[in-house]
Amino acid sequence: MGYDYCFVCGDKNPHGLKAKFNADGDSVWASFHCEERHIGWPNVQHGGITSALLDEACAYVPLNMDLVTVTAELNISFKTPVQVGETVRIEAHPTKVNKRLILVEATMVNQAGELKASAQAKMLVLSKTQQAAMGIETQA
Ligand SMILES: CCCCCCCCCCCCCC(=O)SCCNC(=O)CCNC(=O)[C@H](O)C(C)(C)COP(=O)(O)OP(=O)(O)OC[C@H]1O[C@@H](n2cnc3c(N)ncnc32)[C@H](O)[C@@H]1OP(=O)(O)O
User: Main localisation, per the record (predicted)?
Assistant: First the structure.
């Protein structure tokens, strides 16, 4: 699972987060280590980084079903700051699957199991025409 220049998962993007997402049934997960370059406030992971990781996890859920989507809505609750030096696990799973709309929930927890952030997303399935218009190439 991956896309070379994606800011979150691409391994060829020199400025990217290089998070690797794995499938586990209909769920997906990834680990991420917070470093100094990811902060906003001192020692605290930037909320945009947290949001990007959760958004990506939500996109990987339909990808795991061979569906290409964009995020139509993303609601995030930031529960506890992610500190520099912490490793977090991001997980996401589908809660409702319709023809064009996939509802997804995602969480970010640290190694002690403390909830750092959670998200609910509405992922809109793109038609082949919409994918082509966006320059997204798929094998199928
Ligand atoms: C292949 C690649 C493999 C590897 C990839 C790894 C990289 C992964 C990268 C992942 C990156 C991370 C992910 C990212 O960050 S993706 C980037 C962030 N997201 C965007 O840029 C999306 C921008 N928005 C749009 O493109 C359009 O507004 C969309 C496509 C969302 C809707 O467009 P449009 O309005 O023209 O709609 P439609 O004609 O297509 O469809 C209409 C249907 O959709 C329903 N609807 C619409 N909005 C909503 C809503 N909010 N709630 C509920 N329903 C909604 C609507 O009622 C209708 O239903 P129905 O009447 O048909 O029943």
Answer: membrane
